[in-house]
Amino acid sequence: MSMSDGLGAVPGKLGAWRERLVLPVFVVTIFLSAFLLFAVQPMFAKMVTPKLGGTPAVWSVAMVFFQAVLLAGYGFAHALNRTLTPRQAVLTHVGVCAVVALVGLPIAFDQTLGAPPSQGQAFWLIGVFALSVGLPFFSVSANGPLLQAWFSRSGHAHAGDPYFLYGASNLGSFAALLAYPFVIEPWLALKTQSTLWGVGFVLLAVSIAASGFVAMSGSAAAGACLKPSQARDAGAAIGWQKRAAWIALAFVPSALLVAVTAHISTDIATVPLLWVLPLALFLLTFVLAFSSRGERLHVKLLALQPAVLAVLVAIVVLPRIAPLGVVLAAHLGFFFVSAMICHGELYRRRPQASRLTEFYLYVSLGGVLGGVFASLVAPAIFNDILEYPLLIIAAALARPGLRAEVRRVGIARVAIIAGAVALAFVALQAGRVVLPMLVGLGALLVLAGTIVISREAPLRLVAATVLAVLLQQLGMNGSEIVSRTRSFFAVHTVRQTEDGRARYLVHGSTVHGAEWVRTADGAPVKSRPEPASYFYRGGPYAAAIEAARQVHGGKLGRVAVVGLGMGSLACHARSGEGWEFFEIDPEVVRIARDRSVFRSFTACAPGAPVVLGDGRLTLAEAKPGYDLIILDAFSSDAVPVHLLTAEALAMYAAKLSPKGAIVFNITNRHMLLDQVVAGAAGSAGLMAWHKRDQAVLPPFAASLQARAHVAIAARRPEHVGRISADTSWSKAEAGPAGRVWTDDYSNIMDPVRRKLGW
User: Fold this and answer.
1) 565-606, pLDDT tens digit by residue?
2) In terms of pTM, does the model score above 0.85?
3) Which bin fits 690, alpha (ψ -120 to 50), beta or left (φ > 0)?
4) What is the rounded CA–CA span in Å between residue 572 and residue 537?
């Protein structure tokens, strides 16, 4: 029996037992670590939303915080691997886990910093996140690369190439992604989730210690116990050019993930949990690319990408003609293939195991930069989701062989072409160029064909892709678009009908108000605008407002409206009534107040105050005594859950006058929310009624009328006037088995299931 630095191989039956145990221990540990890492993010986001609201600062800081801490965790893993022996690294990391278990659990909203300050809120938010979830997230984020580095020194038969374990890591993330909305959230309250997460963390710490033990007792102990200086010298030197390639290949799919999610959820379909699909595909690409079959798949997908790209080009030309499933498949198919190619290239360029943690550090940096670009930078510099077509081009640039072809063609020529394209995009953004539709259609179809035949010519494929994207973007500047602006929350498009008589504000596929701007003979409308879309006179929305008005003798006192839109609701206001509006998006307020675009808000409620911020938080600061509270934050298919919880309804009820009522716009193509409203209202001592508009209406372009699903809640039946006796309205009842939504519990799948009739 030989020994190596006191950590020799264990002979006989014990050695064989250790050999069989090492891989399962590492796989389970990495899987559990990734599961916990992915599960904590939606869990803590749900915790903070009711307290901090949905303001841009909260979400941008949350994203930047989690990505920055993940990068810090990868840096910590790299430092442990490069500066300490395996024994020291194991003891250090297990010690960090022990500290976290003692002082960082259970995860909860830490209120040490008190109320938000009037200035420097971003730093305050970072402090809240750091105190609440920073330590647990940091300690778990280091596990992926660190455990793979330990496995590489375990003496296992596959220790020389441990990158396949990255698949187990992403399988854990994949499992958490699917489990959270479909299993964890519907069945477990947040406190229970936090408790179970803490139990999982303790189990993870034990598993990490076991992994360290089997790694240190490996049969290749001599290699495992290299001194840090020896470990640094192992493997070929890595230059900055290779590091830059790692960053770029991680940047493109990370940014493309955010961009394609924003595109399909904004411009194609606002479906609950639709974001799960691209994120699941993103994780799956890591699982497949970093597997034994990854290289064979990589070759096949490189051959497939031009055809998928050509289909995508053709689809974006005629998005309204192609079925929804085909459109989604085209976008998600291109995203999947392109992410697979980028991650496949990363796998092909992976260094020796001794450089593993450095590799993952730069991959993480690329992912962070990609997420920051698509989530924070792009909304600030583009009026549309322009980052998506730009990243389609970047995906074409990521194909191997491009660099060699650029050298063959000549860098000067490529630079001239790139400069011309850049100037064209500047002209596009300035709105100076409009492409005739037929010319654009023909050119795009020709370019789609060119892309298909450019599989072996990456530079030609990139050039055709750039031109296709440019032409498609130019074709979007149709005459029906009056303006398009972008905020943190949405891309806001003001459109007009073909005859130019009406305008409406659109976010994706959802209309947020409409207005007649010209009469039948083409003259500008100068009279007081009439409420339109969901709020048309004779509809259930108008009936609910009028019923509340009659309860108060034909005149309302104070009215609070959460959700401004383009201001159509303001045209239900009457002289002498005090209407106040609460809106989270400053860009919406700007649009509503721009008389050159819409007149409803300024003509119907001149001087009405608008309070900026999350509706629940800002309304909580308002003085009580509202005769009517209107919650119009539910007209889109994405529902802000924290506005519909028992705690939220209790706060609304406390703001009402003795005979006050609350009106909800619960119109939704994918969810039935009447039971949710009824349950939360009942917990606040309120009764609720609801009505789904069944009226046969003329086409929207001819009438500007849209059917709505409306609910109204009050303390007593007489406080909703004639609605309580109107047979067209139904008493809203909480579901027989459904739990009331609270700040600690919500189940988005239940109203989806009811809408589907399940």
Assistant:
1) 899 999 999 999 999 999 988 889 999 999 999 999 999 999
2) no
3) beta
4) 9
